[in-house]
Design goal:
It contains 5 helices and 8 strands. It is of the alpha+beta class and 190 residues long.
Length: 190
């Protein structure tokens, strides 16, 4: 039985959502085939006070989805070649989101390998890699993740706090020192 995460799950403090997404199942349905994986790494981006957040300087066309309702996908294009998937959190108007950094593949591996031309650890161990493997692109920007159609997250398992490692986020050299050093990247450890 599917237990799709609802808007209430996402409408909470971003750091809590980022931790609680660990162990959940990301699902992408393409032509009747389910591609899925367990979320094993996330990063939190906490609105206008977080200089690493896309919404730090206010609303733009690019980040407008972040100002919308919780439970929507914020997908953006970076470095002229990669899509990245975020999940909007907290109340509407407060632009916060969680970046999905990595999943552990469960189903649809043949399709993922065909898209990535890779296998094993390299398949979905980065935010751009998981988007490529699951065919997530800009068409999902603003997508309602709570509908259970094409792209969604299901409750799967709860990861205990002793199994979660918190570190600084990656690739935010432009941010203020305190934001660069914030322990807002979360990973499942063995």
């Amino acid at each position: 039985m599917m237990m799709i995460l609802d808007q209430k799950f996402y409408n909470r403090p971003t750091l809590e959502v980022a931790r609680d997404l660990l162990g959940k199942k990301l699902i992408r349905r393409i032509d009747g085939t389910a591609l899925s994986g367990i979320i094993v790494e996330t990063e939190a981006y906490c609105g206008t006070n977080d200089s690493a957040c896309h919404a730090h300087r206010g609303q733009t066309l690019r980040n407008a989805v972040m100002f919308g309702p919780p439970g929507c996908a914020y997908v953006y294009f970076t470095y002229g070649m990669h899509y990245l998937l975020n999940m909007v959190t907290q109340e509407e108007g407060n632009p916060c989101a969680v970046l999905l950094r990595a999943i552990e593949p469960l189903s649809g591996l043949t399709e993922m390998r065909a898209r990535r031309k890779r296998h094993g650890k390299e398949l979905t161990n980065g935010p751009a890699k998981l988007c490529q493997a699951l065919a997530i692109d800009k068409s999902f920007n603003g997508w309602d993740l709570t509908k259970g159609s094409q792209l969604w997250v299901e409750d799967c398992q709860t990861v205990e706090s002793q199994s979660i490692l918190s570190t600084p986020r990656i690739g935010i050299d432009y941010a203020r020192k305190e934001d660069r050093e914030a322990l807002w990247r979360f990973l499942i450890i063995a």
